[in-house]
Amino acid sequence: MVDFNVTEAMVQAWKRWDKPRATPSDITFIESSLGIKLPADYVEFVTRFGFVLFGRDVPERRFLFSYVIEENDQRVIRQHQVRFMHQPDKIVPRYRYMTTTDDPDDETRPSIPTGYLPVAGDA
Questions:
Q1: What is the pTM of this model?
Q2: Of the candidates 12, 1, 17, 19, the residue with the CA atom closest to the CA atom of residue 86
Q3: Residue 29's pLDDT is what?
């Protein structure tokens, strides 16, 4: 879960940069490729605002967001930078790369927990 407020300055900046918005086929591509159901709040965001860039809505320069990790009956709140939302053609290969266990000698994999999807990046 990510909790942040979309400001009017952010909306206006996103309109100026005209990044693509998610289409129903984008959502279907991600879900069918990975065999998952995307969270409704993510689908609503990318279909409404698009695959946006954060931090350029001067003077606010917002790109630090809080998020919650809930696992094994524990809840941890963290903050991290988000600079941009990945487009669908980037999400699927990144997810596959980050969750692969093909090489048993590679201790860095999987690099994200089951159930997480890399939908954004921090440049």
A1: 0.70
A2: 19
A3: 93
